[in-house]
Structure prediction request, 439 residues.
Amino acid sequence: MSTGDKINKKQLGAALIVILLLVFGGKILSDISPKLGLSLITGLFFGYILTRARFGFAGGVKKIYITGEGSLTKALLVMFAVTIIAMAGLQWAAAADGAVVKYLVEGDAVKIPATGSVKSLSLATIIGGFIFGIGMMLAGGCASGTLTDLGEGAFRSAIALLFFAVGSVPGLSARYAFDQSALADFSTIVYLPHYFGYIGATVISLLLLLVLYMITRKYESFRRSEGHFEELEYEERDLPLEEDEADSFFSFKTYHKFFMERWSFMTGGLLIAVMFIFVVNTTGKDWGVTSAYARWGVAIFDSLGFDMTGPAFASYYEAVQQGLINDGGTIRNIAIIFGSAIAFLLAGKFKFDFNFNLKDAGYYALGGLLMGFGARMAKGCNIGALYSAISNFSLNGWGFLIALSLGGIFALKVFAGKVNLIPANRYQAEKENAEQISA
Prediction:
């Protein structure tokens, strides 16, 4: 078979056109502000990596629960560990120069980079995390996963994305009401280095990750022993091709290696860690996704005539008035969509997916609403309230992790077989198969 037969020329051409348009758009954004151009570039890399490795945060719970195979979960834990070590050095150096964690900044004090994700652990964190966990299972992905799935052509993600933005608005209102209530008194904000130093905080964080890694290994063994374990399988075209020294560099095998071969979860996790550190080093802030969703939600409600000037929405409304094109988070999120699309186009795998019915669409919408509401209640999603929080030594990240996981498992149990994205419970499926055989 010739190279031309193996490379999808139409999709390759489409990818090149998209890249050229993004170069042009990046120039325009950079002229407005260099930071916007940087947001575009980082978003493209995030999207490309997430799709090339089929890497997702929601899958850390869903995949191992459904299949018993924990390679994604373990890759996520390694990603956390690498990021924690890098952030320890960066923040320790800043603290040594007199910088302080963001929530303690007063006057002319300098902020320790990325400590904006150090937030209070409260009942709102737990409730928000649990609700978000349910939503991401119904929608088929978390905040970043919704963006990458949309870039891959899954129309269901457009539904989830819209309702994610809409659900963020009542979430903002609910979180504001919580913060003004007596319940807020039962909150605590803990930056681990304040109690254990940077070495101690790093060691404690890594030990907790090691415990989770061991639990993952144990669960895999349990699922194997009970006969409900599914090995990770790649599509044939995602697998590495056999290399031959006689092959020319300008060959299909080279193209396949660079643009089509699927990356492992571990490769994806390590590259995401590198990009996270890059974002912190270039912006002084951590990676977040859902604040932009909230701004989109405020923009939607504002366009419909709702009063968005109240204290719960003030900062988001101000950003909307300045124009979403000037919002780095918005640019980065949109770029994630395009980065994912480029990954699939270069691999010749892009296709629009409308494989769902009206009932499924209702579940996607509900999932989006729950994620939007939950993310604002918890002040973040799998990225901001989990990955960024834990990587920056905030106790609330661990609380969110527990709540999120419980919410996700709850949804996988309750909605098993009722949504096209959630298969039947493994025991129920086994029982039904046995009944069919005996019938």
